[in-house]
# Entry
Amino acid sequence: MSTSYTPNSRETYHHGDLRTALLDVADRLLDEGGPEAVSLREAARRAGVSATAAYRHFADKESMQAALAVRGFDAFAAALAEAASNNSEEPLTAMGQAYVRFAVARPGRFRLMFGTSVAERERHPELLAAVERASVGFRSAVTSPASSDNRLAMLRAWSMIHGLAQLIIDGLLPGYDPEFLARAVTTEK
# Structure
């Protein structure tokens, strides 16, 4: 006579979409402590699963951070596109404000997206594609067609807006309104 095995409730726990749940938790970790706070082990613990379960979805910490950066760049692209479509007369100004607003609202996410936490970006083609999606609208707001002068104009504008966003989230411009500063650096009046 064979005995039947009845697993305990922990073994039968079904999470649903564990990858998404881990990314949601890791996104909260980003908000709490920036890219350094994100770990597979902590995301798994907070999601209520074993660390081994997390490794079934992400090869390593960098892979999880790359997936978070993809989410960030997709949200960033949407914010820039919405800003440009709501202000077709001054798309660069609108996108500059959206850029700064995005950084101020989610500094941990912004630092992950533009920082060095994902050191080997070429290992993550989905991240490279997300970066490209986010930059297309910004490039077109700055200039078209793609002459070398236009590429330099885009680089100048991006450098100013990105540098401003970084200065603000690093606390180096206290007392200034980020919206006002974003308008000031993107308006040529």
About this structure: The mean pLDDT is 87. The chain has two domains: 9-58, 60-186. DSSP finds ten helices and no strands in the chain. The two ends are 88 Å apart (CA to CA).
